[in-house]
Amino acid sequence: MTNKIILEGCAPKPLAFYLKALGILRLVSEQVDVTAKGYWQGTAFVLETALNKDQLCDFFLNKYSPTSITAGWNGGSGFYPKDNKLAINAILSSEDERFSNYKESIAVVQRCLEKLDLGEKPTDDDKQNLLLLCRNEMSEDALGWLDACFVLTNDKAKFPPLLGTGGNDGRLEFTNNFMQRVVEAFSDKEQSLPLLKNALFGETVASLSASAAVGQFFPLATGGANATSGFDSKSVVNIWDFILIMEGAIMFGAASVKRLESVQDGQLASPFCVRSSDVGYLSGASEDEKDARAEMWMPLWKAPATSEELQALFQEGRAVVGKRQVKSGVDFVRAVHSLGVDRGIEAFQRYGFLKRNGKAYFATPLERILVVHNPDVSILEEIDEWLEKFRREVTKDTAPASLKQALNNLERVIFEFCCGKAKAYDLLIALGKCEKALARSRKWAKDNFVEPLGLRQKKWIDVTYDGSTEFRLAAALMNVGSESTQTDSVTTCRSLFEPVGYRFHGAYWLEHYDDVLWHDGSIVDLLRKIFQWRILFAQKHGLSGAGLEARFETRLDDIAAFIAGKINEQKFKDLLWGLCIFDYGQMYQKPKFLFEEKSKGNVVPAFYSLLKLCFARESEVDEQLGLGYKAEEFKRRLEDRLFEEYKCPVKLVPEIFYRAVSGDSAKASKLASQRLRISDMTPVVDEIEVSSALCKRAAAALIFPISSYSYNWLRKHILKRTAEFDAEQSVKKDNTL
């Protein structure tokens, strides 16, 4: 018969109570019931065993044989003259059979100390030799503890953060305290039973062992200032809690691994243990990541599992992003939500080994993360290599503070995005801020070989699109570009924000490039400078238009919203940087938002329509050739003058634009009307006067590319109707814009 015993004294947090659950399952499985299983149910651990509650208590009081936990390499471990030897002497003099293995392990440590002639706490070199000797001499019973306590590599011994620095936490030595608690628990069973029931079932107990220390596992029980109603308090812990904590920690045996991509001799691999990330929790600060030992993600499962199954899980400790093992807390949350962790795990309780209360380390519970698949997390794989390089360089002391801030913001957004607390849009903005910070520190970026981003997956735009006018305007603007006949890079709007070009392998920093126009001032002034640059570019290369080749057209109602000042300009600026990080030349499919129901074009001002006909081409290049043409092919055809039919039907007159940006709508519209008449297009008006602000915004809006449908709509509504025009419109139907 199998009994389901709910262990209310075991919970996912604090770490002490989590480790207790593992210790109980391991000991019951190894010493009394090999069929025992355990799992998490809410905030309690459920033990499935042939024992009932009374038999479980009897096992621990009368039959439980403690694991041989020793650390002869630590001062205070009980093996040196000035150490507290009461516990060791009590075990060695005891006739209880349950201490037989323990006695043997103590004797082995003593022999090792004699062989190395160590009469006091060893130095670092002697400690390395002692660890190796103990590892070779210890019995099988003690190897689990040694594996959880330290790992020997070709370089030196390394210590998993769960057990401090080899079985001690600062001045607190775990093994001597463990022996003291075991002796205390076995010596007075009548007093020990209530404490055991408290540890197992959460039953109320009159008092605990006020003088016992618990270390980093139970921050609330460590005492100190303001820990009680008075000024100070001593550490308070249940002796059985401490015993079971140590027994549970043995499940986390570490290992030394070599990786093919690593040049190091060996790297410490501790189950579900990664580099600390100071994001994902409210008290996070940059100092946490700098000073933290690490962080551990403790798995929670709801299907009954045996001790052997759990040991296999912890030994593997599998968590991957893409094809590599996770390295940080941000990596781990990506793995959790992309199913890069072992199946059957329902959630993870995240712990950070952080400095709190002075220089003491506490296993601080940070957050519980449910294992829920988020398919959008896969888009992060494209930036994985860049992000690892960016993070490695930015975390160095020589990196600019602006880049450190951008990195921290990006990792926070990635964490929240994976957990469903932030949108993909927020991720795009965070990446844009990183790119902007890099552009402002491009000398540092070049010196440290940090390349700009050049994303190519259309899914990024589909997933991050938030349905806003600002997004559509920014996307249309950032894919505007013209192929220079004198350089090997595509001259895009991005190159006017930061000196970046594109090659086959991706984006790169341009050398000796002085045409950066970006500033944080008025967006109208910025767009005015960009369009003015394009006019100069067109004149320099003998183009009849202002070089408005683009893959994404702009909706006229979005342009109308911009001219009317009805957009969020700060959001628009952020999106310009977010959407500049794409290599649109390699994006062969249109984003899904271009296939939305398009708006009627009767919302743009007549003044804008008049000006746009002087600077727009009759048929956009992207609609004639599709999205698959290569920049090199476009360049060749441009040089061969094979694009005559796509050039602007109106000769380029920069004066029209310059009058408009100065706010002189009357003169600008009059010049535009004259230019259109010369080009055999007669407008219905000769002159239009608008406010100076609207005039300047309409001029700035000329930079936005429009579709041939929109262009024809402008012709239809601003030009006088002729028989030829009506015949043309019968062929080019006035489709919904």
What is the element layout, followed by pairings?
Blueprint: E1 3-7, H1 15-31, E2 37-41, E3 44-49, H2 53-63, H3 86-93, H4 100-115, H5 124-137, H6 140-149, E4 151-152, E5 157-158, E6 168-169, E7 172-173, H7 174-187, H8 189-201, H9 239-249, E8 255-257, E9 267-269, E10 273-274, H10 286-291, E11 295-301, E12 305-306, H11 307-316, E13 320-321, E14 324-325, H12 329-337, E15 345-355, E16 361-370, H13 384-394, H14 401-418, H15 424-440, H16 442-447, H17 458-464, H18 469-478, E17 481-483, E18 490-492, E19 500-503, E20 506-509, H19 523-540, H20 556-563, H21 569-579, H22 606-615, H23 621-625, H24 631-639, H25 654-661, H26 665-678, H27 692-700, H28 708-718, H29 723-731
Antiparallel strand pairs: 1-3, 2-3, 2-12, 4-5, 6-7, 8-9, 10-11, 11-15, 13-14, 15-16, 17-18, 19-20
Biggest β-sheet: strands ordered side by side in the sheet: 1-3-2-12
Total number of strands: 20
Shape: elongated
Radius of gyration (Å): 35 Å
Helix content range of the residues, please?
Answer: 40-55%
- How many distinct helices? 29
Binned strand content: 5-15%
* Mean pLDDT across all amino acids: 83
* Uncertain stretches: 223-233, 258-266, 482-490, 618-631, 634-647, 731-737
- Largest sheet at a glance? 4 strands, antiparallel
End-to-end distance, in Å?
73 Å
Based on secondary structure, the structural category is alpha+beta
